[in-house]
Amino acid sequence: MLQAIGLTSARHRGLPPAVDDLTFEAGTGCVTALLGAPGSGKTAALRLMLELEPGRGITYFRGRALHRVPDPAREVGVLLGDVPGHPVRTARGQLRMLCAAAGVPASRADELLDTVGLAGLGDQRIASLSLGMDRRLALACALLGDPHTLILDEPTEGLAAREADWLHGVLRSHAARGGAVLYTTSDPKEAARSAGHVVSIDGGRLVADQDAADFARTRLRPRVAVRTPHAARLAALVSREARAARRSVEVVTEASSSRLSVYGSSCAEIGDTAFRHGLPVHQLADEVGDTAPLVDHTVPGGGTPATGADETGAHGPGAAPQPAVRAAGPDLPPPIKRRPARGPLRPVRYELRRLFGVRTTTLIVAVALVASAGLSVLLARNGRTPLPNVLAAWPSLLPLPPAALCAGLLGALSFGDEFRYPALAAGRGTVPRRVGLLLAKLAVSAAVALLLALLAVLASAASLRLVYGGDLIRIPPNVMSLVVSWSGLTVGCAWAGLLAAGVFRVTAAGVAAVLAVPVLMVPLVQRMPKAPTARSVTGLPGRLRDLAWLQWPHEADRWVLGAMQVVAHPVGAALTVSLSVLICAYLFTSLRGRVRW
After folding, report:
1. What is the pLDDT of residues 552-586, one digit of tens each?
2. β-strand 335-336 against 197-202: which pairing, if any?
3. Which helix (H) or strand (E) holds 115?
4. Which of 38-42, 338-342, 363-367 has the highest mean pLDDT?
């Protein structure tokens, strides 16, 4: 059961709250419709329930607030808008990535594709899906954790009648299995047809809380839609004959002067009246009209709803009173704090599926390898470029070698795509203040950068052997230092792009941070005043071994010295300074946003 108590949204610039002291229930085993005109506060109410917006009130999901539910994906399934997925990702890839976020097996993706009727379209790109297919995929995302409660915002908006009927059938099936369903709509006839309980709101306040039968009886009335060029004369004739026969007939003239809505009569009676007086009739049809003035809903055939409600309307005595559930005592309801998005339960698996689920990663790696192979051949042609620069494909004209630039781009996309295509939480961008998610991204980006660095060197060596023969390639004596510096450069660029994109929430900021290392930071480091005499760090590995709890092997001394040489190099020093600044900025934003695991 879902219980919303005293929901009140925060005021903005002195305006009235979008939701004002809203209290209602959505029972287990029932489909509940939250009905209201556009702008009545339906979406704001859902966001307050899901703790996506600040305000006051509380919502209980089977007796627990959402922030006290240990695994929200298994308790609440949400559909807010369309699928927030990368457009080139496949439907199956999107679901499998979200399976890692929800902590469910990847096989659940294929089960849900079959459930929502997309079994044969799992390899289709999200961008190629129609609106109906996209809505089916969004429903599959909401059902991933097999939740007890479903919350959906305008799920049938823009859908054809057949797709809407199918979706409502799925919702009724979920409720029949013991779940609770709450969805919003602005169509009273849809609410009466598909829901078992209807909650009507206007201006963010509760208007009526009824079951479907009472709602249809008090809110919807049969009427006859008439279109004639002599609407005023026909209205007068119908009213006069009804008074003469002592029948209760209401005639409402619509906004269009040629249209009438007649309540309490039939098509035959209206047609006979028009025939007896020689009035032409262009339309004569039975309809179901909405008697409540609060919903601005256009009925089929044009025109606007009848104005004014009779004594059985939604505002009359037939409307159910507002539920008596209230916050205890005269105090205000508890505050609703906007809580950060939850990170994936299996972050490493999630990050791997996010990275390799799109063609962008493969394209970037291919560009890096081709550029490295081509540049190495050109650099080796004059014979004056050192072999390490040739293998790294790093000419003096470029700020960074292709492998380092592409590693930085992949790192920037790691967090940039989280904000551009927020797949972790519906209706909001992912907040990168989760330690588990950050560590997973750092580990995966470092592994990809090291693999890219190795493949770039191998591609350069293979191209040199093919073009110039094997005599050109020799193993230098300081190979260990070169390996450490090359690995540190690529991993550092990847982490710089990742952290900058996480701080500024855009991919371009990550790319700019990578390019700023050689363009801005290296000249800055080179211009720093140097000491007249340089002190030696000889013996540093031994002194570190004495301070450490664990004794590492003597072979590791070469790695420590290689790392020190990398930091001493201008590019290494600039990269170290940049990473230090980005880490401090990240920690500052994390502490302000209450970092969580």
Report:
1. 555 555 555 555 555 556 676 777 788 888 888 87
2. unpaired
3. helix 107-115
4. 363-367
Q: Number of C-alpha atoms within 13 angstroms, CB side, residue 492?
A: 25
| Amino acid making up residue 539 | G
Q: Residue 183 belongs to what H/E stretch?
A: strand 180-185
Q: Model confidence over 368-392: pLDDT tens digits? A: 999 999 999 999 888 788 888 899 9
Cα 516 from chain centroid? 31
With the C-alpha atoms ordered 44, 45, 46, 48, is the resulting torsion angle positive or negative?
positive
Answer yes or no: are the C-beta atoms of 557 and 541 closer than 8 Å.
yes
Virtual CA dihedral for 533, 539, 540, 542, nearest 10 degrees? -170
pLDDT at residue 158 tops 80: yes
Q: Is the dihedral of CA 68, 74, 80, 82 positive or negative?
A: positive
Q: Which residues pair with 211 in a beta bridge?
A: 197
Burial class (CB in 10 A: 0-12, 13-18, 19+), 317: exposed
> Tell me, what DSSP letter sits at residue 344?
P
Say if residues 269 and 276 touch (Cβ distance below 8 Å).
no
d(CA 183, CA 155): 7
- With 0-12 / 13-18 / 19 or more C-beta atoms within 10 angstroms meaning exposed / middle / buried, residue 588 is exposed
Residue from 396, 358, 388, 384 nearest 453 by CA? 388
- Please write the tens of the pLDDT for every residue from 227-267: 999 888 999 999 999 899 888 888 888 766 788 888 888 89
Residues in the chain: 597
Question: pLDDT value at position 313?
Answer: 38
Helical segments of 434-478, H only: 435-468
Exposed, middle or buried: residue 288 (CB in 10 Å: 0-12, 13-18, 19+)?
A: middle
